[in-house]
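QA checklist item 7 of 12: single-chain prediction sanity check.
[x] sequence parsed
[x] length recorded as 237
[x] structure emitted
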Amino acid sequence: MDLRDMRIGDFSNGLPSARDVGPPMSKASDSILRIPIVAAHEKLGLSPNEISAYGFLIGLAAAGLTAAGYVTLGMIALAFSQIADGVDGGVARRYNLESKKGHRLEVVYDRVNELAILLALAFAGYATLLLAALAFIAILLSTAVQPYSHFDPGFKRFIIYFGYAATMLFHVAGFQIALGVIFLANLTAFAAGTVIADYRLQAEIDRQAMIRRENEHAMGLPPPPEDPPSFLSKLFS
């Protein structure tokens, strides 16, 4: 199957595009967080951007607690920050308050929080600074290509919780392992996203070329001359 046949929202080939996976996941999250979503907006009168700001501050507090050695409290605060991250998007979708500005703000908050918790883990001695830096660079690469590929692993903080559980229960370098997984997953997402984005770009170029040829044919214009064969094609023909 040619990946260029995949279109956003096109299921004719039996497979959804990466972007089509997002809405079902968002709906599931909104269903789980329905009560706090309604309470945050209707009872407390909070906008999505305000909820994002509170989640951002809680995330920074989580990093501070972790860096100070209170890793359990840090993970609890990180979980509340992640809940706020789900509630703000749920409020935006439920009450039709989505905006490009809000999305950009959320992305910035998320990346800063992720950098803070990665550095906190390194500062507290749970992971090396090198691995924390590599993990964040991979996250940035994945984020850079995501608007074009619509592909994002999206489980960075969940992996940190598994790292905490492994550290506490089995007394292994769980956070170090978690950061390694984050690095590899986001690097893979960057590579896969680059391929997806390239195919989508080529598909759009092909579509525009087909439309142009159809318009030229409808106007009775002669078809453009074909590109001359290359030197290598002449050599091996």
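[x] summary fact logged: The first helix runs from residue 22 to 32.
[ ] second reviewer sign-off
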